[in-house]
Write a structure and sequence with these properties.
- GO terms for molecular function: ATP binding; double-stranded RNA binding; L-threonylcarbamoyladenylate synthase; tRNA binding.
- Keywords: ATP-binding, Cytoplasm, Nucleotide-binding, Nucleotidyltransferase, Transferase, tRNA processing.
- Residues 14-200 form the YrdC-like domain.
- ATP binds at residues 59, 63, 118, 142, 144, 152, 196, 237.
- L-threonine binds at residues 36, 68, 122, 182.
- The protein is an alpha/beta fold and 349 residues long.
- 32% of the residues lie in helices and 20% in strands.
- The strands form 2 sheets. Strands 1-8-2-3-7-4-6-5-9-10-11 form an 11-stranded mixed β-sheet, with helices on both faces. A 5-stranded parallel β-sheet has the order 14-13-15-12-16, with helices on both faces.
- Helix 7 links the parallel strand 10 and strand 11.
- The structure holds threonylcarbamoyladenylate (TXA) and magnesium ion.
């Protein structure tokens, strides 16, 4: 495929948007920015269109997609009912990085939901995304626009690096704001459950709808296990390089990373570092990337996937990630992603 690139700025260039929307309404695949990460969109109600998403990404067929809509009104045609708690969540967090799982109507095809009777829905908080959905006139199924297993894309360049030639078009709207995928919450159970952590925290959700369970952990689950969200079974966020995560207080983490760097250089392994600003002062020679201030987890969120891809392009063998940043708020979601990406986790005191 010859992948077209449309540049769209805050001015929302109508011609570019219309052309991209036309590809979508004709059953094609178009990657577009959201506030979280770039998504690879197709008409969620068109089986053939959705199948192209799975093909382009190399995504396992049982891993369901999130359906993106322009406003909550559009939910009505997709779900059997909107539970009271879902409605409260929509009031508080839509448009925004919260995906809500509800009972689907049969109009949503099996390919989109991975055969489940539920469907995941969100209204993104990104003008380009909203405009594209409106102009296409369709709900858009859109997983993160990366090859399956790779770090999610936070810029159009990342999408092109993974999917050029495999999709019809990319809408380049610049870098995303958040850098990590949405929080996923399932409201179909008696006590709702968080299936994936994101910027919207458990505390924020509980303030809105009361008690919720946590149904995710930071491991990758074996194929044979039954999990609540199919995505939990698959390798995630992995760059080409091996990833070592060092967790603990900043001083201890710096000491451990120095040890590892020395050890790896003796073995002739090329090492790349992802360091907090505080740790960065202690290293000079090694290829490194700053994930931001250790007390600013929103910076780590924005930089994590970007940094993994950046260091991969430097052809390092091993990426060591400094895990001394704050684990509260969105920090919990950053730790979830980086633990899943890691081949080895070292905890130091
Ligand atoms: O921020 C985001 O959510 C981005 C942007 C593009 O919106 N999208 C995204 O999609 O991260 P994806 O496909 O990479 O992740 C969707 C996650 C997967 O873990 C999937 O298993 C889960 O949501 N999911 C989708 N539908 C589900 C359902 N009906 N029941 C349980 N889990 C579901
Ligand atoms: Mg993904």
């Amino acid at each position: 495929k010859d992948t077209k690139v449309f540049y769209v700025s805050e001015k929302l260039e109508p011609k570019a948007l219309d052309e991209a929307a036309k590809i979508l309404s004709h059953g094609g695949t178009v990657a577009f920015p959201t506030e979280t990460v770039y998504g690879l969109g197709a008409n969620a109600l068109d089986e053939k269109a959705v199948m192209q998403i799975f093909e382009a990404k190399g995504r396992p067929a049982d891993n369901p997609l999130i359906v993106h809509i322009a406003s909550r009104e559009d939910c009505k045609s997709l779900v059997l009912e909107i539970p009271e708690k879902a409605s409260l969540l929509m009031d508080s967090f839509w448009p925004g990085p919260l995906t809500i799982i509800m009972q689907r109507k049969k109009i949503v095809p099996d390919v989109t939901t991975g055969g489940l009777d539920t469907v995941a829905i969100r209204v993104p908080e990104n003008k380009i995304a909203i405009e594209l959905i409106k102009r296409s006139g369709k709900p858009l199924a859109a997983p993160s626009a990366n090859l399956s297993g790779k770090p999610s894309p936070t810029s159009a360049e990342h999408v092109i690096a993974d999917l050029s030639g495999r999709i019809d078009a990319v809408v380049d709207g610049g870098d995303v704001i958040i850098g990590l995928e949405s929080t996923v919450v399932d409201v179909t159970s008696e006590v709702p459950a968080i299936l994936r952590p994101g910027k919207i925290s458990k505390e924020e959700i509980e303030n809105c709808i009361g008690n919720v369970n946590i149904a995710y952990d930071d491991k990758v689950h074996p194929e044979s296990e039954t999990v609540r969200s199919p995505g939990m079974k698959y390798t995630h966020y992995s760059p080409k390089a091996g990833v070592i995560l060092v967790e603990g207080e900043n001083d201890a983490v710096v000491r451990k990373i120095k040890e590892l760097v020395e050890d790896l250089s003796m073995r002739d392994a090329k090492t790349g570092l992802m360091l907090t600003e505080e740790s960065g002062k202690h290293f000079s020679e090694t290829e490194s990337f700053s994930i931001g201030g250790k007390d600013k987890p929103e910076q780590a969120a924005k930089n994590l996937f970007y940094g993994l891809r950046f260091l991969d392009l430097k052809n390092v063998d091993i990426i060591i990630v400094d895990g001394s940043f704050d684990s509260t708020g969105i920090g919990a979601a950053v730790f979830n992603r980086v633990r899943k990406a890691a081949d080895m986790i070292i905890k130091v005191k």
